[in-house]
Design a protein that fits this description.
427 residues, alpha/beta, 7-stranded parallel β-sheet, 16 helices
């Protein structure tokens, strides 16, 4: 059973184990998402935050020989509880597995320590220690910066930055980074599951670190983007400001890779020791350039990188458009009412209509900022704009000839909502 099975690492591990002949079940929070990402995989629907006691795991572990934990969260938020997901639930899992003789493969992180600077690393370390203490057969794998065919987290951030035209923004450009290809990571998990890797803790990293600027350059080259004409080094105060804004958005459900935990980790670098895994297997992790050479790069990857870069701007524009539309309607209430009364509406009905739809506009502008409702907000914006277009065309057709083109401008607003729709869909 793979925990976090439709995540960036979890989905790759699940598919890899299945391809190697394992009978795999996916422990997932959302069956709908799992069906989209992992069609044909047996699903076990639950939530780590509800599995905090060993007995909570008993039924879930029926007929299971090994659990691979790929679940994790970067930072606390509306849908994430680091201590529960990284420590309490994993401690309970370890105790349940120890009683049943079930092996555990734990995907941890480089830099975990009880006194680490971030709660991400501290809770991960607590989970690792709890698993060691429980006595179940255990492998702890600590990957470096994971590079895969798809993108999420740090990989997504690299591609977003690489998509910036002409200028290359970067923070902590000299921070040392060791990467690992998703294929090598999945192979290590498979070796552990099969019992071919001695139990223990292993850093899964390439042999030689490179500066973050080098990793970003390799990413830009793989995507096929032109070399940047100049580099913009973001100062420390700038990264702190950006991460604080990202943290604030995290309370609205946006899981930005620019949140403070990620920035703190990146400032320290991502460096591990490849020797234990090399000694145990006789193999090394592929270097970054070789990893990229093994991955296909096509138009879809460039488009995804550009859309990820533009998504915050698109959401911001839509938010402002609808907020200002509603506010202007309220501030210009007398003029708007006059327009309607001139075509035969009653004064009270006209006033009520303007106020009602202004409130609708303001609501749509605010709702798109709440991540769980962002997709529905885009659909609602399109529907409301279409209603405005039809209603105004029937009631005030002369507006089509207005020199300021109020009806014409509804069309690009509608299209922007449609463009935002797939942008804000969950992976």
């Amino acid at each position: 059973m793979v925990l976090g099975a439709y995540g960036f690492i979890g989905s790759a591990v699940t598919q890899s184990l299945r391809a190697k002949g394992a009978q795999v079940s996916a422990f997932v929070r959302s069956k709908k998402t799992a069906a989209q990402v992992l069609p044909g995989i047996v699903q076990v629907q639950s939530d780590l935050r509800a599995c905090l006691r060993p007995e909570d795991w008993d039924d879930l572990l029926t007929s299971i020989d090994c659990v691979v934990n790929c679940a994790g969260a970067l930072q606390d938020g509306p849908a994430d509880d680091l201590n529960a997901v990284h420590h309490t639930a994993i401690s309970a899992l370890g105790q349940a597995c120890a009683r049943k003789g079930i092996a555990v493969v734990q995907i941890s992180a480089i830099g975990t320590a009880s006194d680490a600077e971030t709660d991400f690393m501290r809770t991960k370390a607590a989970g690792d220690e709890a698993l060691r203490a429980c006595g179940a057969p255990l492998w702890i794998l600590k990957p470096g910066l994971v590079i895969g065919q798809s993108d999420y987290g740090g990989t997504a951030l690299l591609r977003m930055l690489a998509a910036v035209p002409f200028v290359q923004p970067i923070a902590y450009s000299q921070a040392p980074v060791q990467c690992v290809g998703m294929l090598d990571l999945c192979d290590a998990v498979a070796e552990a599951v099969a019992g071919n890797l001695p139990q223990g803790s292993y850093d899964l990293v390439e042999e030689t670190p490179m500066p973050l600027s080098g990793v970003l350059s390799e990413t830009r080259r793989w995507l096929g983007f032109p070399t940047a004409r100049m580099t913009l080094n973001v100062p420390v105060w700038g990264t702190r400001l950006i991460s604080r804004c990202a943290d604030a958005l995290g309370h609205l459900g946006w899981r930005s890779p620019l949140r403070s935990n990620a920035m703190i980790i990146m400032a320290s670098g991502v460096v591990g020791n490849p020797e234990p895994y090399r000694s145990a297997t006789g193999r090394s992790m592929a270097p970054l350039r070789q990893v990229y050479a093994s991955l296909a790069s096509s138009r879809e990857h460039r488009l995804s990188a550009r859309m990820s870069l533009l998504m915050p701007l698109v959401v911001t524009v839509l938010c402002l458009f609808w907020l200002l539309s509603g506010l202007f309607g309220l501030l210009g209430l007398p003029q708007a009412v006059e327009v309607l009364t001139n075509v035969g509406w009653g004064a009270e009905l006209a006033k009520l209509s303007v106020v009602f739809w202004s409130v609708v506009d303001i609501t749509l502008g605010l709702v798109i900022l709440w991540r769980p409702w962002a997709v529905r907000a885009c659909v609602a914006q399109f529907a409301v704009a279409l209603f405005y277009l039809i209603a105004a065309s029937l009631t005030l057709p002369a507006l089509w000839l207005d020199p300021f083109g109020p009806l014409t401008k509804i069309l690009p607003a509608m299209m922007l909502s449609l463009v935002a729709w797939p942008m804000v869909e969950k992976r």
